Records
---
Amino acid sequence: MIAVVLFVVGAALGSFVTVLAHRIPRGENWVSGRSRCPNCGAQVAARDNVPIVSWVLLRGRCRSCGEPISVRYPLAELGLGALFAATYLILGTDPWWELALGLVLCVVLVAITLTDLDLRLIPNAMVGAGAVAALAILAAGDPGELPGRLLAAAIGGGVLFLVVLAYPRGMGMGDVKLVAMMGLYLGRALAPAVLIGFAAGALVGVAIIARRGAAGRKQAIPFGPFLALGGIVGLWFGEDIVEWYLDEFFPES
């Protein structure tokens, strides 16, 4: 039942996250104001704003003008709902603050993925809000975790900053800030998270080059979504991966 409830909550938040991803990068007010159709400007009625269900019932079109509604909206709602349920099932509720960190991280990563895919931009406001939320949860749940998480953020962000300096065309400062923020949530699990993000990005890059040839080398792709994917894997399995690595290569004597 808890997983079902969290799925519903996540789907509802997914609808809100799409609003954040659209309005924050454009400097629009995201606190108030009802959603409107970008084509005809008609206000979206409450009955047409039920996560996933409304999009299906409307067959993916605006009720007023018939303009297609992007599939990204129901996908974001479904995705965040699934992430919430899976995070609970994998992490459990003990301790509570780890689950809280996981759920908030899912929200932030989905929002950043949407903005980076849409605008090739990782807003400072999202990264900053995510960092503040992580620090607040850690301070309330287990202040003793703060030094290690801050160290992970500093090392992860610092290493990626050097990578950006060496290869500025590949990534940007937004990616550096994102990794640093993820360090607050993941601690030492940040290492496998970043490696998985790099591996996923490299695979997609190779696939593009294989399909388009030399022209594919010049195609810019946002790196934030790959880091977000790594962040989710790190959240769910990062500690297990780190423990496996330490046991395999640094066994206790």
Note: The radius of gyration is 19 Å.
---
Amino acid sequence: MSYDVAIIGSGVVGLFIAYELAHYKVKVLVIDREVEPGFGVSKGHAGVIHVVQPPFNSLRSKLAVDGNKLYDGIARRLHVRIRRLSALLVARNPIQLIALPAVWLILNRVYGKRGFRVRILGPRGLRRSEPNVNGLGAVEVEGYGVINSFELVSQLYNFCRLNGVDFALSTEVTGAKVLEDEVVLVTSKGVYRTRYVINAAGLYSADVARLFGDEYRLGFGKGAMLVFWGEQTRNIVAPLQLIPNPKTKGGAIIPTVFGTTIWGPSLSIGDRGDRSVNEDDVGVLIRKFSGLLRNRASRQ
């Protein structure tokens, strides 16, 4: 079977690419080793739409800002729940409080000119904004969001199928041969020919790249999260960290579209198939976030 474009990976990135291509007269195939779309990394995150994404001059940072501004339209067209809110970096001690103006200056210089409001909250402003948060002040960055990522994956998949995109699920790419005007993909369920290949395989992207002679390695880290019934904050709340902790990915206290609260994620070394959560993972999260709240009555 021949296609114009074959996308390897049906996570949120692969599905978004297929979604865009589905608006054109292009024959598209999405291949994934899993039994359903979004079954890899895309089902294991907090659903946060970011603004701040260091390093600030990186492509990742630029794409985070550009993508952020597109989500409202996507959510409206696909009928996906999205909730806009702010992120608060909370100062817990006098040293962090003194550092707030410098943090505000940097973030405002980078993101203020891109249309995101950045401001400093004093003790009273923080209490009005977040009555349940302990802190001496905070830097607030507006424009964040949380989205129902399960709905997003499902709706992207449905849109693509209804608009002519083919899917080969439970199908692993085992070989590839680049010819003069096409690529031959050998899979566990047959051979496909395509003019272009897009590698959106996530944790397995290095494996796919090696099929084409591109040698690079990925380092794997495991992020654990705690989920609580009920909302503990109105916005995304994180402790201000002047020196990053290598055992976290940053993380925050995150209200979700489901009316629950997430703490995390943490970061620990593991292989890409590791889904376990141990006592150390939980301890890191509790130590980092428990002191931020006045009341943690929600059930875990």
Note: The longest strand covers residues 137-147.
